[in-house]
Amino acid sequence: MKRFILMLLFGSLLLASCKGRQEGTTVGLVLPTEWKDISGEYINAHGGGILSYEGKYYWFGEHRPDKGFVTEVGVNCYSSENLCDWKYEGVALSVSSEPGSEIEKGCIMERPKVVYNAKTGKFVMWFHLELKGQGYAAARAGVAISDTPTGPYRFLHSGRVNPGIYPENMTQEEREAKLDTAQYQKWWTPEWRKAVECGLFVHRDLAGGQMSRDMTLYVDDDGKAYHIYSSEENLTLQIAELTDDYQKHSGRYIRLFPGGHNEAPAIFKREGVYWMICSGCTGWAPNEARLFSAPSIWGPWKQHPTPFVGEGADRTFGGQSTYVLALPGNRLLFMGDLWKPESLMYSGYLWLPISFGEEGLPIISGPRS
Ligand code: DGJ
Questions:
Q1: Integer Cα distance of 348 and 362 in angstroms
Q2: Residue 175 Cα to ligand 1 middle (Å)
């Protein structure tokens, strides 16, 4: 009952600022069937996140084509003052027409996130980058910067994470283990699992850097920023600290849940506890979300049951996490994607309020509950 009242309160606060809009385009309790910007165009900003800056929200997301899945345009940006009426601000980061460019048209740009760096005055975008023609093999993180929130962003560099450096929480024994992927060709055997836990892919990728696919960014209260990403063939999450300008990795990083097969990380903090919502790895198909918490970004992280409750919770109501937006009044908004692989452009969005139960665990109720 308490949860229901909290949800109603949260919903009415959001709905109140969305007067005059049809029910299906408001964020909150109703699952939208169609999301349009203020000029009536379908919002094309998938796997995205929101930057809150000087009283405005900036939503960055993947521009996806109607057919196919490679990036033909880049990262889109929309702005809003009420999270409901979205103005299209254009392409924040454009693909390049230059052959051989790391961001050449036909590459794959996914899960862009933008943060503001108060020290440099720059807006910094990180995104998952796959090189043109290489499928998902490159597994890089890309970085671009801008002097204004909407861009255009200037591409700086891309690469794997922290080449030559071991994760802080790898033991000496694990660092010294002689693990060769050639000996573990067959996945999911008990021996393979043990080797993955021990850092099979960390070793394989040590010289060139750790893989980085689904990702998010988190800026902590002390201004330190972190890159959180699916690594080690999507089998293990990693959290890497960024340099003070947020443009590179500092070299400090840890592994989380080796072999856990988590992706789509979305992180937030409440009353000193760090929470992370992830999905499992089933491509575009929905699966049951995972929930983790820790007293520090550096852990120890522990797993809880899925925060989603109600009919369809075991498939995250058809969605996959991408971001959690902290709103004034200690409110938290879960943002997810409802992927439509047959036309990724028209993939939907799943935005739901997060409440907290009596045990202090996050609860996300279904769009129709
Ligand atoms: C699931 C990931 O979460 C998405 O970002 C995307 O990479 C798809 N896999 C591609 O199959």
A1: 23
A2: 30
Element (H, E) at 8: helix 2-16
Residue nearest (by alpha carbon) to ligand 1 atom 10: 283
Report the predicted TM-score, pTM, of the whole model to 2 decimal places. 0.92
Per-residue pLDDT tens digits for 343-360: 999 999 999 999 999 999
* Contacts (Cβ under 8 Å, ≥6 apart) of 8: none
- CB of 234 closer than 8 Å to CB of 242: no
Distance 3 CA to ligand 1 centre (A): 32
- Within 6 Å (CB) of ligand 1, which residues are found? 47, 110-111, 214, 263-264, 283-284, 320
Beta bridge partner(s), residue 304 = 291
Is 20 exposed, middle or buried, given 0-12, 13-18 or 19+ CB atoms closer than 10 A?
exposed
DSSP code string of 203-271 = HHTTTT-B---SEEEEE-TTS-EEEEEEETTTTEEEEEEEPTTSSSEEEEEEEESTT---EEEEEEEET
How does pLDDT run across 51-99, given as a tens digit for each residue?
999 999 999 999 999 999 999 999 999 999 988 889 999 999 999 999 9
35 vs 41: CA distance, rounded Å: 8
